[in-house]
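Hi support team,

I submitted a single chain yesterday and got back a structure, but I'm not sure I'm reading the token output correctly. Could someone confirm the output below corresponds to the sequence I sent? I've pasted both exactly as they appear in my results page.

Thanks,
R.
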Amino acid sequence: MRLSDFWRNMDHEFGPRYSRVLAETLALSEFNSMTANEALNRGVQPREVWQAICKAQDVPSERWLGPDIEIKE
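Hi R., thanks for writing in. Yes, this is the structure output for that exact sequence:
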């Protein structure tokens, strides 16, 4: 997962404003209570951070892959 995909998933799941609040304030137990922003800045893979947020926020597993993206030819 690229960082741009991470933010697309965050915005889709939580909205563009709340996703930024979560990334800045939600302490993730998987990363010794670092926030998503801290974890990303320290080199943790975006997919790992996304999955940790999904677990912490009780996002149903069927939505962990993010929104379907229409491919334009």
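A quick pointer for reading it: The two ends are 22 Å apart (CA to CA). Let us know if anything else looks off.

Best,
Support desk
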